[in-house]
Every structure is written in structure tokens, then in C-alpha cells.
Design goal:
This protein is an alpha/beta fold. The chain is about 20% helix and about 35% strand. The chain has a single domain, classed as 3-Layer(aba) Sandwich (Dihydrofolate Reductase, subunit A), CATH 3.40.430. It contains four helices and twelve strands; from the N terminus they run βββαβαββαβαβββββ. Strands 1, 4, 5, 6, 7, 8, 10, 11 and 12 form a nine-stranded mixed sheet that branches. It is globular, with a radius of gyration of 15 Å. The protein binds NADP nicotinamide-adenine-dinucleotide phosphate. The site of NADP nicotinamide-adenine-dinucleotide phosphate has 29 residues, from β1, β2, β3, β4 and α2.
């Protein structure tokens, strides 16, 4: 599986149920990477999307502990195990773990690759992605040149799980 996240210098990802910042190029890349694929997200992240609706053109699996929760266009799963059963038979590289914090933490052990938009700034955040720079099991193997969006600097990084 792939993890996909936009993080700040402290690996912050959100505050008060929202993203820290929107970078159009990051959103474009997210769309491009995940279109036609399977996306796993938490109920809170789903509800933070425009109109609280799943993203068009992707199979969305949403995690909730509420057995009565329904959302048009998404499959509700009630445990990590149920998600793993639902993706059986799907190529691992076509599965994207899209947050938020709870979901990143629970699914990190199943991820082999992480696509990280690294924003070189410190925001006030209340949600975080696990810091892969501090995790000896992960190594960054690709990083684009730094780009800018107004006065923000960011780059796209790829991390892979070390073999063995
Ligand atoms: N920067 C980024 O790339 C990025 C990406 C995604 C999200 N975000 C941000 O992250 C924040 C949301 O993250 P979050 O940690 O608060 O919430 P979240 O991970 O999106 O959703 C948490 C919810 O998922 C459900 N859940 C989690 N584990 C489960 C399990 N094992 N079984 C069943 N259901 C489970 C529960 O839903 P119920 O309460 O319904 O039971 C839980 O309340 C927002 O600020 C959002 O903007 C940032």
C-alpha cells in the first residue's frame, strides 16, 4: 500500500478538522496519483472534503466505528481487518492510505511506499503523520526540486520501506 500525505516541517497535517494549507500542485498530484485507484480514509477526513463527499473516480473505503454510518459513493468499513479484506485482490500499488492521523498510524505497518508533499514551514497543527525521517524502517529515495506557491516552499518526496 501507499501512504499519501502533505506534511509540514513537524509532520503536521491538519488543524480543527481541516488541512493546514491548500497547494494546487499538491492537489493536482493527489488527483493524478489516486485516480482510478482505491483510497482509504477516516470518517473525519471524508467529512472534511468538499460537501463531505467521496472523491470522484476513486473507490473510497471509509473507516468508522458507527455501524449505521452510510455515505453515497463510499464503502464503509468498521475495522482495519475489514479494510484489509475489502482490498484483497487489489494490487498493493493501487491502494492509497489518505489519512487522517488515526488512519495513517493504523495503516503505516501495511505501507511500503509513502508519497509526501513536504512543506517547508511550521504551522499550528493538532494532527500529525508519523515522521518517516525518524523511523529507521523508512528511507527517502526521491525528492523533487523545491517549488514555490506564493511564499511557501515545498517538494515532493518518496519514501520506501527498507528491505529485510
Ligand atoms: N495533510 C494531509 O495530507 C491530510 C490528509 C488527510 C487528512 N488530513 C487532516 O487530518 C485531520 C483528520 O484526522 P483525524 O485523525 O482527526 O481523523 P481521521 O483519521 O480522518 O478519522 C478518524 C475516524 O476514523 C474512524 N476510525 C479510525 N480508526 C478506525 C478503526 N480501526 N475502525 C473503525 N473506524 C475507525 C473513526 O470514525 P468514527 O468516529 O465515525 O467511529 C475515527 O473517529 C483533519 O484535520 C484533516 O484535514 C490531512
Amino acid at each position: 500500500m501507499n501512504l499519501i500525505a502533505a506534511v509540514d516541517r513537524h509532520w503536521g497535517i491538519g488543524k480543527k478538522g481541516r488541512l493546514l494549507v491548500s497547494i494546487p500542485e499538491d492537489q493536482r498530484l493527489f488527483r493524478e496519483e489516486t485516480l482510478g485507484k482505491t483510497v482509504i480514509m477516516g470518517r473525519k477526513t471524508l467529512e472534511s472534503l468538499p460537501g463531505g463527499k467521496p472523491l470522484y473516480g476513486r473507490k473510497t473505503l471509509v473507516l468508522t466505528r458507527d455501524p449505521d454510518y452510510r455515505v453515497k459513493g463510499a464503502v464503509c468499513c468498521h475495522s482495519v481487518e475489514e479494510v484489509l479484506r475489502a482490498v484483497e485482490g487489489t494490487a498493493r500499488e493501487h491502494i492509497f492510505v489518505a489519512g487522517g492521523e488515526e488512519i495513517y498510524r493504523e495503516f503505516l505497518p501495511y505501507c511500503r511506499t509513502a508519497h509526501i508533499t513536504y512543506i517547508d514551514y511550521v504551522y499550528e497543527a493538532d494532527r500529525y503523520c508519523p515522521d518517516l525521517d525518524k523511523d529507521p524502517q523508512w528511507i527517502m529515495d526521491l525528492e523533487t526540486e523545491e517549488a514555490t506557491c506564493f511564499d511557501l516552499c515545498y517538494s515532493f518526496r518518496r519514501y520506501v520501506r527498507r528491505q529485510g
